[in-house]
Design brief:
Elements: H1 4-22, E1 38-45, E2 49-50, H2 54-64, E3 69-72, E4 79-80, E5 84-92, H3 93-123, E6 130-132, H4 142-151, E7 165-167, H5 169-175, H6 178-188, E8 194-198, H7 201-209, E9 214-218, H8 222-232, E10 237-241, H9 249-253, E11 259-261, H10 264-267, E12 274-279
Parallel strand pairs: 6-11, 7-8, 8-9, 9-10, 10-11
Antiparallel strand pairs: 1-5, 1-12, 2-4, 3-5
Helix pairs in contact: 1-2, 2-3, 3-4
């Protein structure tokens, strides 16, 4: 699981980019408010959700105005109910309103990812399978979404193209075959996990014989996956992938595979409905 300590530089850069595109040379609407006005505000969830994104919110207001006070009432990974207050703010009215949209964008999106991940995790809670995310993430927000996936109770696949091999059909073709691809992977980067995608039982056997750490079963039916688990007999970890929906998820989770990768965790998330309101004195 990614930690907030690891993510600190990423959070700072995410926020810097968001404020640059949103605030630009200055918030001309906030300038309508006297600079001396001091206000309090609160942010409420308009729906049940799993919260994620505190660090991004804190960083938005730190970069906008370090004098703004942020008081959190919930933790990342915590389930909240409709109309629940998530955090309170106090500071310059201009600063609160300038930071509002960027802060809520991060919190809504990451909480949406965490909420969907929680829903998927609950569907297979009584099985031993591990649900994995994919690289199908919002550009620029991969690390945040992967952190959100873990807050929701699922797990991370590789972070990018650099930390583990995932040898797919086109790689196999370009390398000259399954065996050649796995051998070259071991030679080029010893110690890196080697996963390879297969589409048939014959390819599965070749991948196992070549020493793959993980074999991705692409578009296998649940019945074929049960047979593949028996065929593998513990020689490698098995991952199910391809057109797995919330309706079929439990069927695949019950086949005995070790992992199920689901792109929907990050690409089908819906932003959680949040609202910031200035508190009248």
């Amino acid at each position: 699981m990614l930690t907030l300590t690891e993510l600190k530089p990423v959070v700072e850069e995410n926020v810097r980019t968001a404020l640059l595109e949103d605030v630009g040379q200055g918030d001309i609407t906030a300038e309508l408010i006297p600079a001396s006005d001091h206000k309090r505000a609160r942010v409420i969830s308009r729906q049940a959700a799993v919260v994620c994104g505190r660090a991004w919110v804190d960083e938005v207001f730190r970069q906008v105005d370090p004098k703004v006070k942020v008081e959190w009432l919930v933790e990342d990974g915590e389930r909240v109910e409709r109309d629940q207050v998530l955090f309170r703010l106090e500071g310059s009215a201009r600063s609160l309103l300038t930071g509002e949209r960027a802060a809520l964008n991060f919190l809504q999106t990451l909480s949406g990812t965490a909420t969907l991940s929680y829903e998927y995790a609950q569907r297979v809670a009584d099985t031993p399978v591990t649900l994995l995310d994919t690289r199908k993430t919002i550009p620029g927000l991969r690390m945040g979404q992967k952190y959100a996936v873990s807050c929701g109770g699922c797990s991370n696949h590789r972070i990018g193209l650099y930390d583990a091999f995932l040898i797919k059909e086109n790689h196999i073709m370009a390398c000259g075959g399954i065996e050649q691809a796995i051998q070259t992977a071991r030679t080029n980067h010893p110690g890196k996990p080697v996963e390879i995608e297969v589409e048939t039982e014959e390819q599965l056997e070749r991948a196992l014989a070549a020493g793959a750490d993980i074999v991705m079963l692409d578009n296998f039916s649940p019945e074929r996956m049960i047979a593949a688990v028996a065929q593998t007999a513990g020689r490698a970890k098995l991952e199910a992938s391809g057109n797995i929906t919330d309706e079929t998820l439990l069927d695949y989770a019950s086949t005995g595979v070790d992992y199920i990768s689901i792109g929907a965790l990050t690409k089908h998330c819906r932003a959680v409905d949040l609202s910031m309101r200035i508190i009248e004195d």
